[in-house]
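User: For my dataset I need records formatted as: sequence, then structure tokens, nothing else. Please produce one.
Assistant:
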Amino acid sequence: MTRALVNKKKRTGKRGALTPRLDIARAIVRAKLEAGEPVNRQKLQKEYGMSNAIFDTAIYAEVARREAMEELGLATWHKTAQEKLDAGMRQYKKNLDMQFEQRVQQEVRLRIESTVLPSLRKREDDAKRVIKARKGVMNKATYTKILSCLHPDRVDGDVLKRRFEQVFHLFKDMELLLVAEAEKPLTGMEVPDSLEGLMALRRGRKKGGVRVR
């Protein structure tokens, strides 16, 4: 309640539409008591322009009113009702948060399944076409024969064995370039069709497994 309103009501001095000074003081004191705030007579007098006597009477009346309510159990009822209201507001906010989270999840799912996964499948298909077009420079039999000739067990001496071992591994690593794709087809990772499949693939990767087709 503002000082201007208090002054306006003081000037009228009527009961009915506008409250007398004591009722105003009691309303001010009641609000502070219910909020658990300290009641300072001097501060209230300066703030609202009413005498200490008015606030003394208001404080006495409100304390008596509060004690009477406690005896009747009304204060407890008021507290319980407020607690129920607070609990209802918390539940309402929780429901709003859950609905917002669900909308976000649905939007993420839609974007992944309509944009990300189709793009991944297209890239995989393009890569497969490139790989299938790989002709190589020799057939698998020729490659295997040369590789066997480079095996370090075919030679004696530590120095020569180390050289053959290096060449053996270099040649073995070149298999994908030297041998035609038709004779040694590669396997690719399966791109899932849904968000659940993508999450399952991710979990499989974390565990060390890779799904192939």
